[in-house]
Amino acid sequence: PLDSISVHPLPPSGDARARSRYTRTHFTWQGRPAVLYNVHLHTVGARPQELLSGEQSLGRWRTFLRTYRDGALHRAEQARRIRRRVEQETRPVLVVGDFNSTPHQWAYRHIAQGLQSAATQRIAGWTATFPAQRPLVRIDHVLAGPAWQITDARVPPPTRPPISDHRAVVAQLRWRK
How many CB atoms neighbour CB 31 within 10 A? Predict the structure, then answer.
């Protein structure tokens, strides 16, 4: 059963309709309380491949790099906020969602401190999730605190018709004894 759910907008806008946000859900599973954070961190907007089509100019590249830098800074602030909340939890924690960050980026690594990744623990082979049709990067994650044991995980093929431009990460968990 879900005990409670709350939605938290993230900067830069902080607006309740913002695309960057997280939900915090308290739930009970097998008689034990836990908390789930479902996150959607800031995206950078334009992608480098978009710059390669059309007119090439130094101005376009400057705009792209400025946008990319601003996006990375927004994601860093969002990661700090989420990490602070996770550190305050007294219940076992799960953090899942669209981080818009690969495991090599600071925002992901900051949130993932002390948590185990379903992809690195249990998925053999290709773990990329974006874009769904031909995934190149893993930016969607399932992270579990030490109270959980990840028993299986996978990145299934995209659905037809597609329901997202990302592939899902599906993980099976159980309580550690």
Answer: 6
Q: Is the Cβ–Cβ distance between 17 and 41 less than 8 Å? A: no
Nearest-angstrom CA–CA distance, 139 and 71: 14
Task: Report pTM.
Answer: 0.90
At 41 the three-state DSSP class reads: coil
Q: Residues 41, 107: contact at Cβ < 8 Å?
A: yes
Q: What separation in angstroms does the CA of 78 have from each of 65, 152, 157, 173?
A: 20, 29, 29, 26
169 has which bridge partners? none
End-to-end Cα distance, the chain: 21
pLDDT in tens, 126-137: 899 999 989 999
